[in-house]
Amino acid sequence: MNAERRKSRRTANACIACRQSKIKWALVNDEDVPQILCNQTQRSPSRRVNESQDPVGLMISRGVFIRAPSPCPRPQSRTRIETNATGVCLLTSCPSLLEADRRTTVWLAPSSTWSFTARLTLMMAEKLQLETPFSAPSFLNDDIYPLRWSAAPDDDPPDVTGLPPIEHALYLYSTVKFHLGQSYQFLDETSFVQNVEEFYHGNPAKKAAESRLWFVHFLLVLSFGQAFLSRPRNPKEPPGSKFFVRAMALLPDPTRLWKDSLMVIEVLALAGLYLYSIYQRESAQLYVAQAIRIAQLEGLHTQLPEDVLGSDTVSRCRNLWWTLYIMDRHFSCSLGVPMNTQDMDITTLLDSPSDSSPQDATLALRVKLSHLLSSIITTVYKSERTPLGEFLEETRNILHTLAGHAQEIERITRAKLQTSVDTMSRGTRDITLLYHQCVIMATRPLFLSALKQQLDSFGEGAQDLGSFLTPLTPLMSTGIKSAVKTLQILSVEDSLIEVFLPFDLEYAYGAAIHLTIANALFPSAVGVDVPTHSLEAHAILDDMVLKGNAVAEVRRAELLHLEFLFAEFSSWSAEPGVRPVQPESAPAEAPPGDSVAVASEPDLVSLTTLSESQSFFCTSETPNNAEFLDSVGISSDDFLSIVEQMGNQDGLPSAILDLGQFWK
C-alpha cells in the first residue's frame, strides 16, 4: 500500500523556468508514457497513438514555443475535458532545444499567420475546454515537401544532360517572366537570353563549367518554369524540384559566392523564393538575408552614380534592391522576425529620376505597401496594454497613409483603364491584394481583443461589450470588407490565381480566418453573406489542392479545424447567460475597403531617408475611377471619411486593449 501510494505521487520534476515562474506546463510523451500535468502533480490516462494520423505537436506553449511533431490522434467526437488537460503551457523564456538534430521547440512569432493560427487554436481550446490542440491537423507540419541535396565538388563538371531544347527553355523563361516580372525584378532579359543562346549553340559543357553560377541561375529559371506549368507526378515532390536540386548542388560555397555579386544576388533571391513557395520558410529567409547582405556589400541600398556605372546598371541594381526589400518585408512578417534592412540605411531612389514606366510605378507602390505592412507589424503586434483612446488616435496616421496609397492605386488604374480593354492587370491585382492584406493585418487585433473578452466572460455571466466595440465598429467593418474583397478578387474566373507561389494562398487563408472570427462575434450584424464567402475560400483552396499544392491541403485542414472551434464558440455563445458581442451599428454599414488599426504608429516619413522626393506617402489628388475601384474595395475618400467618423477620442470609455498574454 505504501509503495502504491509512493508510486501514485511520483511525477516528473518541473523545469526551472516553470518553478520560478509558477506557470503550469504539460508534456505529453509517447503512447507508453502517461501525460504529466506538472501543476496538478497527477497523471491522466495515456492516449493511444494512431500512426496513420498526421503528426502534431506534443508540447505546446501558448506564449512562445511548440514542441516538434509526434503522432497523436485526431478527435473522433467533440469532447470537452478539463481545462488543464489541454496541454497548454505558458513558457515565455525557454531556449530552443535541440535533440537528435531536430528542433523540439518552435518560437511562435506574433505576426506570423501560421503562429496566429496556432495561438488562436490554443486559446479557443483552453477557453472552450476542448480536446485540441493536439488534435489540430498539423501544428508543426513544416516538412510538407522534403527536399534534400548534396553539394557537388567544385572540380566536377556540371551535368548538362536532360535539359529541355532551346525553344522549350525560352518558353519556360517567358513563363517565369510573366509570373514574376511585375513584382520580382531579378531577371535581366538581355543577358539571360544571350547566355542561353551561347549555351545551346556552342559547347554546353564548357559554358556550364566556365559560367557555373550562370548555369545555376539557368536551372533555377527552369525549375520555376516547370513549377508554374506542370504538376509533379509524385505528390511528395514539389514541382520543378528536379532542376532546383541540381541547381542548389552546384551553388558555390559562401567564401566564393559573393564575388559575382549581381548574378549571385539574383540566384539567392530565386532560391529563397522557391523555398518559400514550398513552405520551407526558414531556409528561404536565410537565402534572402544572404542576398541582402551581399547587396549591401555592393552598395545597392545607396544611390549609385549613373555617370560611372551607366543608367542600365544602376536601374538593374535599383530594381534588384527593391525586389529584395519587398521579399524581406514579406518573409519577415510571415516568420515574425525583425527585418534584415532598416529604412534609415536606405538612400537609393525609389523611382527612376529620369524615366518612370508603369512597371516602375507598380514596383514603387508595392514597396510602399510592403513598408506599411512591416510598420503595422512592428507597432500593432506587441504585448503592451494600450488605452482604447490612444489606440484609435494613433490609428489616424495609418488611415492617412492608406488614403495616400489608395489615391496612387486610383491614379494607376485610371491611366491603365483609359488605354486598355482589360479589367485588371496582374500587377494591379497583386497591389490590391497587398493593400487589403494591410487592412486585415491591422484590424486583426481588434477582432482578437473582442474575441478574448467574450471568451473571458464565459462562466462569469453576461457581459455587455457594446461600449467597448462601438468606437471600433468603423475599423472592424473595413477589415471585414477587405477580407470579402480579397476572396472576391481571388474568385474571379479569369484572375489567373497562383498555385505555386504562396501569396494568393496566404491572402485567401488570412481572409477566411478574418471572416470566420467576424461571423462568430457578430452573427447577426456582419451584413455580408459569410457562408457564401466561406465557400469561396474553400473553393480557392480546393482548386489549389486539385492542382497539386500540398501546402494548400494543410491550410485547408487548418481552416476546417478553426471553423470547428468557432462553431463550438457559437454554441457556447447561444447558451443562457452568455450575451453575444453586438456593436450598436452593423460593421457592414461602414464604407468598403479601408481602415487599419495600430497601437503606436510613428510618422512613416521619418522611418526612411530615401530622400525628400520619395516619401512613402502619396498625396496626389486624383479622381476616382469609381466603378472599378469600388469593385476591388479601393477608395481614398472612404479612408478620409473614417478619419472624420473617429473624431475626437477624448470621450471614449476607459477601455484597454490587452493582448499581452496572446502575443508574448
Give the gist of this structure:
The protein is mostly helical and 664 residues long.
How are the SSEs placed, and which strands pair?
Blueprint: H1 2-9, H2 16-21, E1 26-27, E2 35-37, E3 42-44, E4 56-57, E5 60-61, E6 65-67, E7 69-70, E8 88-89, E9 98-99, E10 102-103, E11 105-107, H3 113-128, H4 166-180, H5 189-201, H6 204-210, H7 212-229, H8 241-250, H9 254-257, H10 261-277, H11 281-297, H12 306-309, H13 311-335, H14 358-380, E12 386-387, H15 388-418, H16 426-457, H17 466-469, H18 473-491, H19 503-521, H20 530-546, H21 550-573, H22 626-632, H23 636-646, E13 656-657, H24 660-663
Parallel strand pairs: 5-8
Antiparallel strand pairs: 1-2, 2-3, 4-7, 6-11, 9-10, 12-13
Output the number of helix runs.
24
**Domain module tally:** 3
Give the percentage of residues in beta strands.
under 5%
Q: Strand order of the main beta sheet, please?
A: 1-2-3
Q: How does the major sheet shape up? A: 3 strands, antiparallel
Mean pLDDT: 72
Helix content: 40-55%
Low-confidence stretches: 1-104, 580-625
Structural class call reads: mainly alpha
Overall geometry comes to globular
How many strand segments?
Answer: 13
Radius of gyration: 26 Å
For the structure shown, list the relevant keywords.
13 strands; 664 residues; disordered N terminus; 3-stranded antiparallel sheet; 24 helices; globular; DNA-binding; mainly alpha; Xylanolytic transcriptional activator regulatory domain-containing protein; nucleus; Stress_Response_Reg
